[in-house]
UniProtKB/TrEMBL annotation:
CRISPR (clustered regularly interspaced short palindromic repeat), is an adaptive immune system that provides protection against mobile genetic elements (viruses, transposable elements and conjugative plasmids). CRISPR clusters contain spacers, sequences complementary to antecedent mobile elements, and target invading nucleic acids. CRISPR clusters are transcribed and processed into CRISPR RNA (crRNA). Acts as a dsDNA endonuclease. Involved in the integration of spacer DNA into the CRISPR cassette. Its cofactor is Mg(2+); Mn(2+). It comes from Acidipropionibacterium jensenii. Transmembrane segments: none annotated. NCBIfam families: cas1, cas1_ECOLI. Homodimer, forms a heterotetramer with a Cas2 homodimer. This is CRISPR-associated endonuclease Cas1. Mn(2+) binds at residues 148, 215, 228. The gene is ygbT. One of its GO terms (biological process) is maintenance of CRISPR repeat elements. Its EC number is 3.1.-.-. Keywords: Antiviral defense, DNA-binding, Endonuclease, Hydrolase, Magnesium, Manganese, Metal-binding, Nuclease. Pfam families: Cas_Cas1 (PF01867). Belongs to the CRISPR-associated endonuclease Cas1 family.
């Protein structure tokens, strides 16, 4: 008889917090990340902090972080998305294991993105969530883009006027973050926070980050689609409000903290899960699929059949 595996036992899937009940994200940099029982620990010269792994939506690992094998095991078992990000948290490199154990929503996503009419319907629903006062019936993608561009530019102008910020236009070069003006730096940092949350929820629900409906050609196209739902409501006003403060030493850090508070106040994880179900036409489906490890086999006549069964032993074989 083999000896029991030492340490805390992994949580069962049924015991894990649902995606919408978790912390939106935890950002760490310049520290050692390890585990203590079922909590993630972050250690630096100032001390140690503990965060229950099952309550993390996305753990963002910035520069100077070292994470142990045990910590990654815990995060994987807990279904927390681990995202490695670059300097100032504005570059995405990789992510870890999802929370989902079923492909129900992924099947809907793949079917919708593969059908022209369904894809357009999803794009219209996305626009309606962003701008419910506008009418999208009968609009094609070119018309939707025109409406969206005008509304976003107006949102920038409105926020700049509200907070007394000189504003020209949205301008950002990924390789030259420090060359942007203060407002554009704050906007970049704010939208990156949205990308982290959207990535965490997308992966947690078992969806494909690359199968976008408006954005295409990138491995995070669907993440950009979902993050855009909240850009003018949350990211834009937060970014301009941060810039309106005086004597800011670190724009990205100040913006991340402000976004953390704004996303918590807006219950963004809950909304993000609900809105993804809505845009994919799965309203009311909930996320009960998290509860079980589902593995089935495809069948060309009946759809799916049970896995884990010795097929081919029926009478007649």
């Amino acid at each position: 008889m083999s000896a029991p595996i030492p340490g805390a036992r992994p949580a069962e899937v049924q015991e894990l917090a649902r995606a919408q009940d978790r912390l939106s994200f935890v950002y760490l940099e310049r520290c050692l990340v390890h585990r203590d029982a079922n909590a993630i620990t972050a250690t630096n010269e100032k001390g140690v902090i503990h965060v229950p792994a099952a309550m993390i939506g996305a753990l963002l690992l910035g520069p100077g972080t070292n994470i142990s094998h045990q910590a990654m095991m815990l995060l994987a078992d807990s279904g927390a998305t681990t995202v490695w990000v670059g300097e100032k948290g504005v570059r995405y490199y990789a992510h870890g294991r999802p929370l989902a154990r079923t492909t129900k929503l992924l099947d809907l996503q793949a079917a919708a993105v593969s059908n022209r009419n369904e894809r357009l319907a999803v794009a219209r629903r996305m626009y309606e969530i962003r701008f419910p006062d506008d009418v999208t019936d009968g609009l094609n993608m070119q018309q939707l883009r025109g409406h969206e561009g005008a509304r976003v530019r107006q949102a920038y102008r409105d926020a700049a006027n509200k907070y007394g910020i000189d504003w020209d236009k949205r301008s950002y070069k990924p390789q030259e973050f420090d060359e942007s003006d203060d407002a554009n730096q704050a906007l970049t940092a704010a939208t990156t926070c949205l990308y982290g949350v959207a990535q965490a929820v997308t992966v947690a629900l078992g969806l494909s980050s690359g199968l976008g409906f408006v954005h295409v050609g990138n491995d995070r196209s669907f993440v950009y689609d979902i993050a855009d739902l909240y850009k003018t409501e949350i990211a834009v006003p937060v970014a301009f409000e941060v810039i309106s403060r005086r004597d800011i030493e670190d724009i990205p850090s100040e913006t991340r903290r402000a976004m953390r508070d704004a996303m918590f106040e807006a219950k963004l994880l809950t909304r993000c899960v609900r809105d993804i179900h809505r845009v994919l036409g799965a309203d009311g489906a909930g996320d009960d699929g998290f509860g079980w490890d589902v593995v089935e086999l495809w069948d060309d006549k009946v759809g799916t059949v049970d896995a884990g069964k010795a097929w081919g032993q029926e009478p007649g074989w």
